[in-house]
Design brief:
Elements (H helix, E strand, L loop, with lengths): L1 E6 L2 E6 L8 H12 L18 E4 L2 E4 L5 H4 L2 E5 L6 E3 L2 E2 L2 H9 L22 H9 L7 H5 L1 H5 L6 H11 L7 H9 L12 H5 L6 H17 L4
Parallel strand pairs: 1-5
Antiparallel strand pairs: 1-2, 3-4, 3-5, 6-7
The structure holds iron/sulfur cluster (2 copies) and FE2/S2 (inorganic) cluster.
């Protein structure tokens, strides 16, 4: 098959043998191993766990280790993820993406110590159900690359960081909520989302950052009405 790979300002074309059950990551790996060892790309687990292999495939952001060539056609155009600075070839700099998780107060902070009993959270409770809906994020950046608001407003926290914030807003063990809601309420936070849904359409883990962001908007509005923000 013909494969066009974006490398900085230029595009390089390769011929790669077609194999059964071949993934896009297999194609890139073949190129790097047999055709051009200088091609830079990133992967770790190859089984959809680590989130490091995301690229743009035929114009669409995807996790490449779980994307079969059969599904995207055997004329491939592969490039780096959009909305992030390119380090080289197919490798983007994820620092800004994860810095935004920190800006959205995306780390858990509980009050219990290891001397305390563990928290008991009923699996069927409404809040736990909301946490479970968002917790499987693998930090791949696909949603971030799919989001036009990130492109227009580079300060926007983006779907993944906001989805993470929403899981923590609903985590009854976490102690950081007023601070977190303030962090996501600003101009570059949840209210900047135009609900285009591209993040949700593209998320390989079938999460819905759009629903998480809508939840944050409601939580911020409620906190303002209650005088907590
Ligand atoms: S729903 Fe919001 S976060 Fe998701 S792609 Fe659209 S604007 Fe971006
Ligand atoms: S929300 Fe989905 S697309 Fe976005 S980083 Fe997490 S797993 Fe990837
Ligand atoms: S290589 Fe880990 S998710 Fe693709």
């Amino acid at each position: 098959m013909k494969v066009r790979v974006q490398r900085g300002e230029s595009v390089q074309e390769f011929e790669v043998p077609r194999q059964p059950s071949q993934t896009v990551l297999d194609v890139v790996t073949y190129i790097q191993r047999y055709l051009d060892p200088t091609l830079a790309y990133r992967f770790a687990c190859r089984v959809g766990m680590c989130g490091s292999c995301a690229m743009t495939v035929n114009g669409v952001p995807r996790w490449t280790c779980r994307t079969h060539v059969d599904r995207v056609g055997d004329q491939l155009e592969i490039g780096p993820l959009r909305n992030l600075p390119v380090i080289r070839d197919l490798v983007v700099d994820m620092r800004e993406f994860f810095d935004k998780w920190a800006r959205a107060k995306g780390e858990f902070r509980g009050a219990r110590t290891k001397a305390d009993d563990f928290a008991k959270v009923e699996p069927q409770s409404a809040q736990r159900v909301l946490v479970d809906k968002g917790i499987e994020c693998i930090g791949c950046g696909v949603c971030y690359a799919a989001c036009d608001v990130v492109k227009w407003n580079p300060d926007y926290l983006g779907p993944a960081a906001l989805n993470r914030a929403w899981t923590l807003v609903n985590d009854v063990r976490d102690e950081r909520n007023p601070e977190r809601l303030r962090a996501v309420a600003g101009d570059a936070g949840c209210h900047a989302c135009h609900s285009h849904v591209s993040c949700t359409e593209r998320c390989p883990k079938h999460l819905s950052p759009t629903a998480a962001i809508a939840g944050l908007k409601r939580a911020v509005a409620k906190a303002v009405l209650q005088g907590d923000l």
